[in-house]
Amino acid sequence: MKKIVTILICFSLCIIFCGCDVHNNDTQALLRIHIRANSNASADQQVKLKVRDAVNDYLERELDGVKTFDEAYKKLSQKLAVINKTAEDVLARNGFKYGVRVKLNNEFFPTRAYGDIVIESGYYDALIIELGEGKGDNWWCVIYPPLCYVKPSGEGNIQYKSLIKELWEKYFGKN
What we know:
With 175 residues, the chain is α+β, with helices and mostly antiparallel strands. It is 41% helix and 29% strand. It has one domain (23-162). It has helices at residues 2-17, 42-62, 69-78, 80-93, 163-172; strands at 22-24, 27-36, 100-109, 112-114, 117-119, 122-131, 138-144, 151-152, 158-159.
């Protein structure tokens, strides 16, 4: 049984990370989220993280049960106004008057490691959330497949949720 599960996990990783299943010729079948802060001022960076938390909570609920990249992309494209409103509400509650722009776009991302998983640099479809001028440090992650949703665990700490890691630990235990 463990051998079959190992083969299935390896096959799934190949499909996800080798780009075997692509949305278009230039895009790997990962859907990212990219939140750009207004500036590098401390207050702008702090509100960016509050927007991140609110949007991630919303996305975790909305994308629950989504089984394909195309389904996730379509669902997000239909929810852009709600995502925009979610971000605007966070800004308003925190006294910020600059606007929000939300779109789906294909953009270049550098190599990124999520724990033991490395996603190579390349062009990926992404949910882009630009706060104000969008000239500050940014935050990004993978939302499909649900590689990670962030949850604050104390001040400044981030916990990552990895479906692959959870399956591995279920069948092979923690290392």
